[in-house]
Specification:
Elements: E1 2-6, H1 10-21, E2 25-30, E3 41-42, E4 51-52, H2 59-63, H3 65-69, E5 79-80, E6 84-89, E7 95-98, H4 102-109, H5 113-125, H6 127-134, H7 145-155, H8 159-163, H9 169-179, H10 193-204, E8 209-210, H11 215-227, E9 231-234, E10 249-252, H12 256-263, H13 269-277, E11 283-292, E12 305-310, H14 314-325, E13 335-338, E14 352-361, H15 370-380, H16 384-387, E15 388-394, H17 396-402, H18 418-422, E16 439-441, H19 455-467
Parallel strand pairs: 1-2, 1-10, 2-9, 6-12, 10-16
Antiparallel strand pairs: 3-4, 5-8, 6-7, 11-14, 11-15, 12-13, 13-14
Length: 468
């Protein structure tokens, strides 16, 4: 069997490995010089400082049943964690904290500790069972029906309602910030889904980074593929499926709109309509900083966190997210700050530390958000500006230019609406099909959606193998 995979993101590489494991002769074609798609790292601001280009803290990668099965430690992948996974400070100096140890998290929460533990503890304890079902298309019978029913009962709630389970604002804000990873409104049905998954993952596997930078993970996947006889060709842009010759199987790790362009008249009318109508969500605006020393957080507990969420109260986070979903830039955007060196000191050099930060902005935004991101950090860490040595800005459209899957700067490769939670991009047990025999979509536009887990590629590859 001859297989071609278009795109070398984690889904494309995972799908390629799965095909190679089954004996296929696999070639991965990547338009850029670098493999990995959203998984990469480089020295962006100062010599010796390692910044992740996209994905950085990867709980679903370390928990992915497929990636774990590859034993990538053989190829140099090691997961590192900061003392705390996440901090969410408020203007009054209080802070919500998530530790991998759920008992320590609950103890620090006081009156809210038992509620947090009761909500997320059952999923953290059975996270392997949860991912076995949650990382598959929803239109299938779950293996662990009772667990998935319990998950669905929480996931279906509006995030603001679930956040209201907590008495203290710092804990309401903590959950709202986690749920905001969906890049969507927090007052709509199913807006808790990503929040429940990521909070549970934080206790099951932590929010780890790859030692030495995210590129180490991408390179390890390539090494694994090559060990199975596959290979990757960079600098190869595919615009027409006919360029792929007589391949028996084609996996497209591309956005649905790009799949339509590649397949032209061969795509089925059903898939063309679904792919054309597929909706993209808000974008990201990324700033990488080189700073002298640490960020001077008011809340000292933030010093031990790998990730710090900035946006204030749960209502403030929700208001900012509603603005960007509605196409308006927030002057106080929800901002994520990565302190990767807290987990992996090898990323720093000469007293300088690499700060990874991005804000949520509207789809296709051309508004410069660097000052707004800096101001959000300064809001909770006065004196931050004085510690900046250099910066590297990547706008929403800069992200789109660097990765064609990030249409309009949408780093989730699609809006996380209720419709696209159940039909991404089509509903059914095989949403990877394109209507073209042997050709399957395998990007984050297919189940289980965004996150570095590789399962979209693996699921598509398994459908291809079953049909062969």
């Amino acid at each position: 069997m001859r297989a071609v995979v278009v795109g070398s993101g984690p889904n494309g590489l995972a799908g390629a490995i799965r095909l190679a494991q089954a004996g296929a002769s696999v070639t991965v074609l990547e338009s850029h010089w670098r493999v990995g798609g959203a998984v990469g790292s480089a020295e962006l601001t100062a010599p010796g400082l390692v910044h992740d280009l996209g994905a950085s803290f990867m709980p679903l990668a370390s928990a992915s049943p497929f990636l774990r099965s590859l034993e990538l430690e053989r190829h140099g992948v090691h997961w590192d964690e900061a003392p705390a996974a996440l901090a969410h400070p408020l203007d009054d100096g209080s802070v919500g904290l998530l530790y991998r140890d759920i008992a320590a998290t609950a103890e620090g929460m006081g009156v809210d500790g038992s509620t947090w533990r009761n909500l997320f503890g059952p999923f953290a304890e059975r996270f392997d069972d949860l991912t076995a079902d949650a990382l598959q298309p929803l239109a299938r019978m779950p293996r662990h029906a009772a667990l998935m029913a319990r998950f669905g009962a929480l996931a279906s709630q509006p995030a603001l309602r679930l956040a209201g389970s907590f008495r203290e604002e710092r804990h309401r804000a903590l959950f709202a910030g986690i749920a905001a990873h969906a890049f969507g409104r927090l007052d709509t049905t199913f807006s808790s889904a990503i929040g429940v998954m990521l909070a549970s993952a934080g206790h099951a596997v932590g929010w780890p980074v790859v030692r030495g930078g995210a590129q180490v993970l991408a390179d390890a996947l390539v090494t694994e593929l090559e060990s199975l006889g596959g290979h990757v060709e960079t600098g190869r842009t595919v615009t027409d499926v006919r360029e792929l010759g007589d391949a028996d199987v084609v996996l497209l790790d591309v956005a649905p709109s790009a799949a339509v362009e590649i397949l032209h008249h061969r795509i089925s009318e059903r898939s063309r309509r679904a792919f054309t109508e597929y909706a993209h969500g808000p974008a990201a605006y990324k700033v990488d900083f080189a700073i002298d020393g640490d960020i001077p957080w008011i809340a000292a507990e933030c010093q031990e966190a790998g990730v710090v969420h900035l946006g204030g109260t749960a209502d403030e986070v929700a208001a900012a997210e509603a603005q960007v979903v509605g196409g308006k830039s927030s002057r106080a955007p929800f901002t994520l700050v990565g302190q990767q060196w807290k987990a992996d000191p090898t990323r720093s050099a000469g007293g300088l530390n690499p700060v990874w930060a991005y804000a949520h902005v509207p789809y296709g935004s051309t508004v410069a958000a660097e000052n707004r991101i800096t101001s959000q950090i300064e809001r909770f860490a006065p004196g931050f500006r004085e510690r900046i040595v250099s910066t590297r800005v990547t706008s929403a459209m800069g992200l789109a230019a660097a990765n064609s899957n990030f249409v309009g700067g949408d780093i989730n490769t699609g809006a996380n609406t209720f419709r696209q939670l159940i039909a991404r991009p089509t509903f059914g047990p095989n949403p990877y099909r394109t209507g073209v025999p042997g050709v399957y979509l395998c990007s984050a536009a297919t189940p289980p959606g965004p996150g570095v887990h590789g399962m979209s590629g693996v699921n598509a590859a398994n459908r291809a193998l079953n049909a062969a």
